[in-house]
Amino acid sequence: MDREPTDIILYYNADGSQHPGSGSDPSAQIPQEIRQMVTAQYPDAHIVEMNRTAQGYEIQLWLNNAEADMHVDTNYQWLFTEFEDMAWTSVPEAVVNSFTQEGYTFNPREDDVDRIEYPNGTETGVYYRIELDREPIDLILVYNPDGSKRS
């Protein structure tokens, strides 16, 4: 059941009986290492769900009234966190200025902007990925917070 900031997950056995753990906090099924990492990186986040991926784990978070996907490898090392479908008004002015100076326009009905956070030594790095829905192909632009293009 979809209940923000945490979902209630119900599991059923083949015979229709409820599986143990149904209705519990989904974070209870998440390894301690991941729960500690989430708490260290995002103290105010709530874990909504965790899924296995080819690279490790994708942990869906509820943070500051928005969803974020934290990606962790199989050794419980943080890879990156993606804050999807941000409001254009929350993009740094330097990024907006570079974007518009290059002749692009942002259509909030068709285009998306994501904020990506990643480990960068002892700091947390950030960049913005702007996906423009254009025919015949989509265009992806990537900027650093200072408005410079990211390679």
Question: Would you give an account of this structure?
Answer:
There is one protein chain. By secondary structure, this protein is mainly β. The chain is built from 2 helices and 7 strands; from the N terminus they run αββββαβββ. The chain is globular and about 55 Å long. The model has no long low-confidence stretch (mean pLDDT 85).
- Trace the largest sheet across and list its strands: 1-2-3-4-5-6-7
How many strands appear in the DSSP assignment?
7
Radius of gyration: 18 Å
Termini separation comes to 41 Å
The coarse silhouette is globular
Helical content (DSSP H or I, runs of 4+): 10-25%
Number of helices: 2
Largest sheet: 7 strands, antiparallel
Beta-strand proportion: 35-45%
Secondary-structure-derived class: mainly beta
Poorly predicted parts: none
Mean pLDDT: 85
| Series of H and E elements | HEEEEHEEE
Features:
single chain; 13% helix; seven-stranded antiparallel sheet; 151 residues; 2 helices; mainly beta
Structural topology:
Layout: H1 32-41, E1 46-52, E2 56-63, E3 66-73, E4 78-83, H2 93-101, E5 112-120, E6 123-132, E7 139-143
Antiparallel strand pairs: 1-2, 2-3, 3-4, 4-5, 5-6, 6-7
Short précis:
The protein is built from 2 helices and 7 strands; from the N terminus they run αββββαβββ. It is mostly beta strands and 151 residues long.
